[in-house]
Amino acid sequence: MTFSSYAFAPEIMAQIEAQGYTTPTPIQAQALPPVLEGKDVMGLAQTGTGKTAAFVLPMLQRFFVTGERGKLRGLIVAPTRELVEQINDTIIALGKNTGLRSVTIYGGVNIKGQLSKLRQGVDIIVACPGRLLDHIQQGSINFNQLEMLVLDEADHMFDMGFLPSIRQIIKHIPDRRQTLFFSATMPPDIRKLAHAILKSPVTIEIGHTEAKDSITHVFFPVNHHLKTDLLFSILKHTETKSVLIFTRTKHRAKGLDQKLQKKGYAAASLQGNLSQNKRQEALDGFRDGK
Ligand code: AMP
Fold first, then answer.
1. What residues does each domain of the chain span?
2. For the chain, what is the mean pLDDT?
3. Model-level pTM?
4. Integer CA distances (angstroms), 251 to 47, 254, 258, 271, in order
5. Is 21 close to ligand 1, i.e. is its CB under 6 Å away?
């Protein structure tokens, strides 16, 4: 199976190739045919499976070959600013030759830039639920012509308490639309939401990927006051390149970051109290190995 079997427009095909995608991933192979046919899809898949392109490509294809430019026709809702930016990066990369315009909408940044982009006319919005609802309430977004709605990482949005916002948002969207719903897990509340908003969906499921053989798990039962020393000892005696450390609170993330820096490690923390610039800096720094 190759991408050429889906009859994407040459402008889009060129970008699929430029991204180095040769064969569709399993979720793409399962999702692309029904999504391209306009069917609702419920996809059980985690990030890293290629699911972004599974909904972005059919959206670009439809908006590129049919309809008017600069009319809001696609809405993608995702739980975090980082995911929103990643999805938009995929839209920009794959849609480079289509002339379609997208905007990202999330809190923690000035609303003026978002308003000015919206006024210029966009085809696709990628948004976090909270700020999107602010825009809806202010009347800065009109969904009358919306054709495609994507909810990505629905279970994370639920965990973060966004379910009421999502219900509110959906009330403003025309019933006549294609809806794509992605979630890594399907607890009962998420299933209920999916059933309420999807019409005769095609369900696809990508088997949970097992942890790679190269990963070793180690568990250290340790008292709270010894944790930092234990961490330093592990870091000192283990050969590592990049290291990701998760903490329970923002405060601990920040504190640990400072302790690591004092010890001479090139560390950064990534937590919700940082400005979007600082968050992006931390992510870029990690990616570049700085
Ligand atoms: P996602 O699960 O959407 O976050 O995608 C994970 C990664 O896989 C991203 O870096 C994509 O660029 C990449 N990717 C998506 N589709 C393909 C494909 N068909 N072939 C190779 N890489 C892909």
1. 3-206, 224-288
2. 92
3. 0.79
4. 27, 5, 11, 9
5. yes
Question: Does residue 47 have its Cβ closer than 6 Å to ligand 1?
Answer: yes
Count Cβ atoms below 10 Å from residue 21 Cβ, excluding itself. 17
- pLDDT tier, 186 (very low <50, low <70, confident <90, very high otherwise): confident
Which residues fall within 8 angstroms of residue 285, CB to CB, at 6 or more apart? 266, 268
3-state secondary structure of 213: coil
User: pLDDT tens digits for 117-144?
Assistant: 999 999 999 999 999 999 999 999 999 9
What proportion of the chain, given as a percentage, has pLDDT over 70? 97
**Strand ranges in the chain using DSSP code E only, listed in sequence order:** 41-44, 74-77, 102-105, 124-127, 148-151, 178-183, 202-205
Q: Which CATH superfamily is domain 3-206 in?
A: P-loop containing nucleotide triphosphate hydrolases (3.40.50.300)
Determine the residue type at 130: G
Which residue has the least CA distance to atom 15 on ligand 1?
50
- Residue 102 Cβ inside 6 Å of ligand 1? The answer reads no
Encode pLDDT of 21-56 as tens digits. Answer: 999 999 999 999 999 999 999 999 887 889 999 999
Query: Dihedral, CA atoms, 193, 72, 47, 286, nearest 10 degrees?
Result: -130
**Is there an atom of ligand 1 within 6 Å of 247 CB?**
no
Measured from the CB, is residue 43 less than 6 Å from ligand 1?
no
For residues 193 and 163, the answer to whether their CB atoms sit within 8 Å is: yes
Ligand 1 binding pocket includes 25 (Cβ within 6 Å): yes
Report whether pLDDT(240) > 90: no
- Which residue's CA is the closest to the ligand 1 atom numbered 4? 48
